[in-house]
Amino acid sequence: MFRVYIMDIFNLKVENRELSIARDSKNLRNDGKIPAEMYGGKSKTNTHLTLNAIEFQKVLRGAGESTIIELDFTDGTKRSVLIKDVDYHYLNGQPIHVDFFEVIMTEKLSATVQIEFTGESSAVRVLNGTLVQVLSEVEVECLPADLPSHFEVDISVLKNFDDSITVADIIHTDKVEIKAEPE
After folding, report:
1. CA–CA gap between residue 14 and residue 177 (Å, rounded)
2. Nearest to 2 by CA among 133, 171, 146, 119
3. How far is CA 67 from the centre of its chain?
4. Residue 165 and residue 96: Cα distance in Å, rounded?
5. How far is CA 97 from CA 26, 36, 44, 180, in A?
6. Contact 152/2 with Cβ under 8 angstroms?
7. What is the pLDDT of residues 128-173, one digit of tens each?
8. Which candidate, 6, 8, 49, places its Cα nearest to that of 148?
9. What pLDDT, on a 0 to 100 scale, did the predictor assign at position 48?
10. For 68-126, what is each residue's pLDDT tens digit?
11. Which of 17, 56, 60, 169 is most solvent-facing, going by the fewest CB within 10 Å?
12. What's CA 91's distance to the chain center, in Å?
């Protein structure tokens, strides 16, 4: 009924940048780059970054916001991060700024994991019912290496109107704690 998908690690090349005026950010975007910020981890200050817009969009489609991304810096260092926030252009929908949250691989973190529904319910198809989806994501706590990219829920088990699937039915490893109420 349920499948848990453990994350893949995505790589993204980044460069450090000097904090500048807004006009410089516009020039970066015109050159096919996106300004970004990295915070969290052991550092107490933000790190200002630049990344390739096309590469970032590929990573965003594959990783989403609950998958570890490894940032590869030009000096050879690597940092593990999650995408915390993406700002989009109001007209064309292209990313114009990204916030990354650096994770420490030995410390637990809280993250939101998407629930993806698959299959077709007999209660919907045969009995002309309506599927009511109360949750589309759940909050989890685990080590970054154990973070699932998403939970897949097969709704074909819903045969009658009285059938339901709850958070307690989500199969997950004992390394992942789901914070939502079981019912």
Report:
1. 32
2. 171
3. 5
4. 38
5. 11, 5, 21, 30
6. yes
7. 778 778 888 999 999 988 888 888 888 888 888 888 888 888 888 8
8. 6
9. 92
10. 899 999 999 999 999 999 999 999 999 999 999 999 989 998 888 888 888 888 877 77
11. 169
12. 24
pTM over 0.90, yes/no: no
Angle, CA 164 vertex, CA 158 and CA 168 arms, to 5°: 125
Token pair for residue 127? Answer: 């009995």
Question: What one-character DSSP code corresponds to residue 30?
Answer: H
Q: Which helix (H) or strand (E) holds 163?
A: none
Q: How far is CA 152 from CA 84, 134, 171, in A?
A: 22, 15, 10
- DSSP code of residue 45: S
d(CA 58, CA 32): 14
Strand partners, 42: none
> Which residue carries 């529904």 as its tokens?
117
Angle subtended at Cα 35 by Cα 24 and Cα 79, rounded to the nearest 5 degrees = 145
State how far the Cα of 30 lies from the Cα of 47, in Å rounded to an integer.
22
Q: E strand or H helix at 159, and its extent? A: none
Hey, what amino acid is at 29? R
